Amino acid sequence: MRATVLVRPKPTILDPQGEAVGAALVHLGFEVQDARVGKVIDLEVEAADAAAAKAEVERMCEQLLANPLIESYEVEIVG
Amino acid sequence: MVTYPGSQDDRDALWALAALDAEAVPVWHDEHELPDLDAVVLPGGFSYGDYLRCGAIARFSPVTAAVCEFAAAGGLVLGICNGFQILCEAGLLPGALLRNESLRFVCRDVPVMVGRDDLPFTGRCSAGQRLVLPVKHGDGRYVPPADLDLAQVVLRYVDNPNGSVDGIAGICNAVGNVMGLMPHPEHAVDPLLGSDDGALLLASLVDAARDRVLAAI
């Protein structure tokens, strides 16, 4: 089963990378009010069903893929 | 002195500790047990290529589990730069270290202020003392947990080089036997290198380790 994990800096955490990307987009002429940069992790996992896969990947997020102090995460089971 | 794949400052730290009359030995990351040690130093560098987050993968090296046990038993542990990041990721110190606010790698001597002098790492310093130490990092912006006890702040930057919250440059755990800092004391043990203020911190650690050995005899 394939899973996609989206890891984002929490709203309270300063994201200078996002600010730099936002400023660069404005420089190109785009109207951008805010930009935040996170990361995507694609996984292939063994699981009985989508719910089990999601629970398993969420445990991975808690233990390694995201740092709960500074990052939030979202798990999508692609199928 | 623990060496992870990608550690960089381990030899400088070994040299600096030896110059301060410590019997410093290298320990490879693969070791499941530490030799008979009085203190552990985790050096700077880019362990495991800083993959995922700085220090996130080094947490899984066998030696890190041994270091956690050593710390839990009250052993003295000092993490410098990447070593600080590893201690945070391993849960031995609170908080996290993120990309510098400027997005630039900073590499220069910076003044820091000593917050407390009652620790095994600061015995030779005095509270309020100003030390000049080199920093060289791209990910040194310290973000504390909301409930950080400010008494755990050991060092603060005089001019914040990386956007750390409250200018925090170094912290210790609640008990005071584990400390992490972004500046590099091991690169500042000889006036020829610009400053020997780092020797005050490292020699404090050597003193404390020696005192413990003598107390145990």
What keywords describe this structure?
heterodimer, A: 79 residues, alpha+beta, Mth169, Chain: A, 3-stranded antiparallel beta sheet, B: 217 residues, alpha/beta, Rossmann fold, two-stranded parallel sheet, globular
Topology:
The complex is a heterodimer of chains A (79) and B (217).
Chain A: E1 2-9, H1 16-27, E2 39-44, H2 50-65, E3 71-77
Chain B: E1 2-3, H1 10-19, E2 27-28, E3 39-42, H2 62-72, E4 76-80, H3 82-89, E5 96-98, E6 106-114, E7 130-137, E8 141-143, E9 153-157, E10 168-172, E11 178-181, H4 198-216
Parallel strand pairs in B: 1-2, 3-4, 4-11
Antiparallel strand pairs in B: 5-8, 6-7, 6-9, 9-10, 10-11
Give a written overview of the molecule.
The complex is a heterodimer of chains A (79) and B (217). Chain A is 35% helix and 27% strand. Chain A has 79 residues and is an alpha+beta fold. Chain A has a 3-stranded antiparallel β-sheet, with helices on one face. Chain A is elongated. A 7-stranded mixed β-sheet of chain B has the order 3-4-11-10-9-6-7, sandwiched between helices. A two-stranded parallel ribbon of chain B has the order 1-2. In chain B, α1 links the parallel β1 and β2. The longest helix of chain B is centred in the last third of the chain and has 19 residues. Chain B starts with a strand and ends with a helix. Chains A and B meet through α1 of A and loops of B.
